[in-house]
C-alpha cells in the first residue's frame, strides 16, 4: 500500500516547524509515523503537506527537573520503557510504554505522536491521567500547559490548536507513600488496549488509601478518570473486597465502545476487573 | 518533488532522489534490489520487513525512505560477514528455525535486536522480544531454540549481536 502523493517538509527546529505550520495550516505532523503512516497507506488520510518532526533532536530527551520528569515529545516508547530516570521516579510510565505494540513499534513510535493522535485504545492516556501530567504545547507566540484531564477532548481529538505542536510531557514525581500500576487487556492481534487501567495509590500510616488517581483507556471514545471510583477509594481499606466494590462504577456514565472483539457489556466488565487489579497492584507496591 | 537521500545499507552508502511517499521497504527492495527484506502484511503487524536502523529494529513498511536519510541500515543481506554466517543464521540452520522462510529475515533481525539488549534471554524474554514477528509455519519453538543457539555462540565468540558498524544505538537514557 502506497500513500497518496504529498509535499514533504523536514524542519530542524521547533521554530522552523511552527513557521511551516503557520504557512501550511493543512499540514500533518509526522513524529514516529506509526499512527499517521498506516492511516496514509490505507488512505484514511491524504494530507497534501507532511511536516516531519523526526529531525528535531531537541525534542528527543527524558530528564528530571526537581520533582518533575520531563519527556520530550519525540522520546520513543523504547526510550521511556528503558529510562533509568523513569524507572526510579515514575515507574508506571515505563510500565505503560513497555506494553505498547511490539519491540519494533516501540523503537519508532513516540510519546508525543501517540498522545497527539489520541487513539481511544492507546496506552499512554491512562497513565498520563493517573499521573496527572501536563502537556506543553507551543505555537509561534509561546508555550502553554494543558493538564492531562483537559487534553483529550474526543475521539482522536485533543485540546491542541491547529498552530500548536506538543513539545513536552511533564510528569510530577508522586510524593508520599505511593505505588502505581498499569494493567491492560491487550487485543490479541493488534496489541491495542481493549481495556487499560492505570492507578496511582497513596497510602497513609495505617495502610489505608490516602489518595487515588485512576486513568481508563480503551473503554470510551476518550480516556477518562472514573471519579466515583477515586472518591470511594479515598480513606478506604485496600483489601480485595473493598477495592472490588469501589471499582464497580469504573465505566459508569461512559458511552462504552463496542466492536467485533468486545461488546459494550463485556468491555464495561473488563473495566471493572482491570480497575480492581490495577488499584490492588498499585496498593501492594505502595506498602 | 524528489528528495535527495543518502542511506548506508550493509556498509555501502547509496544516494538517490526519491519521491516522499516511497516507503523504506520499497526503497530497499525495488531501488536497491535487496529483496531479502520481505513485505508480509504491509500494516506494521507481521514483522517480515524488519530491519535494523541506527541500531534499532524497525518495520520498514511503516517508514518513509526520506526518514532514513543519513541512517545506517542492516538488512538480512548484511548479517553474514566475509562469507561466514552470523550466529543467528547458523542458529536458524542448526535448530530448524524455519520452514517456508518468509518470516525468517525479519525474525533474525528482531532476534539480533533482542540479543544486543539482552545477551542471555530466557525463553519468555525471547518470545516477548519476537512479539512483533509472526511465523505461520513453525509454532515458534524452533525459533526460540535458534535464538538461544545464537546467544550461546555470540557469548562464546564474544561478538556483538549487531555487527559493527550497525551497532550504534542512539543514546536513550
UniProtKB/TrEMBL annotation, chain A:
Swiss-Prot/TrEMBL keywords: FAD, Flavoprotein, Oxidoreductase
FAD-binding PCMH-type domain span: 1-176
Cross-referenced InterPro entries: CO_DH_flav_C, CO_DH_flav_C_dom_sf, Diverse_Substr_Oxidored, FAD-bd_PCMH, FAD-bd_PCMH-like_sf, FAD-bd_PCMH_sub1, FAD-bd_PCMH_sub2, Mopterin_DH_FAD-bd
Signal sequence coordinates: none
Record PROSITE patterns: FAD_PCMH (PS51387)
SMART domains associated with the record: CO_deh_flav_C
A Pfam family of this chain: CO_deh_flav_C
GO MF annotations in UniProt: FAD binding; oxidoreductase activity
PANTHER family listed in its UniProt record: XANTHINE DEHYDROGENASE SUBUNIT C-RELATED
Protein name: Xanthine dehydrogenase family protein subunit M
UniProt organism field: Candidatus Segetimicrobium genomatis
Automatic annotation (TrEMBL), chain B:
InterPro entries attached to this UniProt entry: 2Fe-2S-bd, 2Fe-2S-bd_dom_sf, 2Fe-2S_ferredoxin-like_sf, 2Fe-2S_ferredoxin-type, Beta-grasp_dom_sf, Diverse_Oxidoreductases
Listed name of the protein: (2Fe-2S)-binding protein
Pathway note: Alkaloid degradation; nicotine degradation
Domain 2Fe-2S ferredoxin-type, chain residue ranges per copy: 7-61
Keyword Translocase (UniProt): no
Alphabetized UniProt keyword annotations: 2Fe-2S, Iron, Iron-sulfur, Metal-binding, Oxidoreductase
One Pfam family of this chain: Fer2_2
Domain ([2Fe-2S]-binding): residue spans on this chain: 75-148
GO molecular function, one term: 2 iron, 2 sulfur cluster binding
Chloroplast in keyword set: no
Organism, as annotated: Candidatus Segetimicrobium genomatis
Amino acid at each position: 500500500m502506497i500513500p497518496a502523493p504529498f509535499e514533504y517538509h523536514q524542519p530542524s527546529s521547533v521554530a522552523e516547524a511552527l513557521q511551516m505550520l503557520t504557512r501550511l495550516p493543512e499540514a500533518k505532523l509526522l513524529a514516529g509515523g506509526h499512527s499517521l503512516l498506516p492511516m496514509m497507506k490505507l488512505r484514511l488520510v491524504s494530507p497534501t503537506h507532511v511536516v516531519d518532526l523526526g529531525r528535531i533532536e531537541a525534542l528527543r530527551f527524558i530528564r528530571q527537573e526537581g520533582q518533575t520528569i520531563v519527556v520530550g515529545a519525540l522520546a520513543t516508547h523504547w526510550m521511556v520503557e528503558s529510562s533509568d530516570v523513569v524507572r526510579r521516579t515514575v515507574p508506571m510510565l515505563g510500565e505503560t510504554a513497555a506494553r505498547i505494540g511490539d519491540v519494533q513499534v516501540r523503537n519508532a513510535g513516540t510519546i508525543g505522536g501517540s498522545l497527539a493522535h489520541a487513539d481511544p485504545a492507546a496506552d499512554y492516556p491512562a497513565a498520563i491521567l493517573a499521573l496527572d501530567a501536563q502537556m506543553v504545547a507551543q505555537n509561534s507566540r509561546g508555550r502553554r500547559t494543558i493538564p492531562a484531564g483537559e487534553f483529550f477532548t474526543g475521539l482522536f481529538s485533543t485540546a491542541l490548536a491547529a498552530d500548536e505542536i506538543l513539545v513536552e510531557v511533564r510528569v510530577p514525581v508522586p510524593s508520599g507513600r505511593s505505588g502505581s500500576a498499569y494493567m491492560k487487556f491487550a487485543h490479541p492481534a493488534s496489541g491495542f488496549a481493549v481495556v487499560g487501567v492505570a492507578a496511582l495509590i497513596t497510602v497513609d500510616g495505617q495502610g489505608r488509601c490516602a489518595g487515588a488517581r485512576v486513568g481508563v483507556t480503551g473503554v470510551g471514545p476518550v480516556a477518562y478518570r472514573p471519579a466515583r471510583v477515586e472518591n470511594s477509594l479515598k480513606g478506604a481499606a485496600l483489601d480485595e473486597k473493598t477495592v472490588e466494590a469501589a471499582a464497580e462504577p469504573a465505566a459508569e456514565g461512559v458511552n462504552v465502545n463496542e466492536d467485533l472483539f468486545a461488546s459494550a457489556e463485556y468491555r464495561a466488565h473488563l473495566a471493572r476487573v482491570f480497575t480492581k487489579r490495577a488499584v490492588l497492584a498499585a496498593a501492594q507496591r505502595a506498602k | 518533488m524528489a528528495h535527495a537521500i543518502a542511506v548506508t545499507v550493509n556498509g555501502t552508502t547509496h544516494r538517490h532522489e526519491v519521491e516522499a511517499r516511497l516507503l523504506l521497504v520499497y526503497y530497499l527492495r525495488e531501488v536497491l534490489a535487496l529483496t531479502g527484506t520481505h513485505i508480509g502484511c504491509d500494516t506494521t503487524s507481521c514483522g517480515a520487513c524488519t530491519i535494523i536502523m541506527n541500531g534499532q529494529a524497525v518495520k520498514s513498511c511503516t517508514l518513509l525512505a526520506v526518514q532514513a536519510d543519513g541512517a545506517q541500515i542492516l538488512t538480512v543481506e548484511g548479517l553474514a560477514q566475509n562469507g561466514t554466517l552470523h550466529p543467528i543464521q547458523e542458529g536458524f540452520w542448526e535448530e530448524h528455525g524455519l520452514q517456508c522462510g518468509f518470516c525468517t529475515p525479519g525474525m533474525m533481525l528482531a532476534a539480533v535486536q533482542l540479543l544486543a539488549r539482552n545477551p542471555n534471554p530466557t525463553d519468555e524474554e525471547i518470545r516477548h522480544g519476537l512479539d512483533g514477528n509472526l511465523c505461520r509455519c513453525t509454532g515458534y519453538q524452533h525459533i526460540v531454540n535458534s535464538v538461544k543457539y545464537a546467544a550461546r555462540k555470540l557469548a562464546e565468540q564474544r561478538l556483538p549481536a549487531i555487527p559493527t558498524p550497525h551497532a550504534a544505538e542512539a543514546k536513550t537514557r
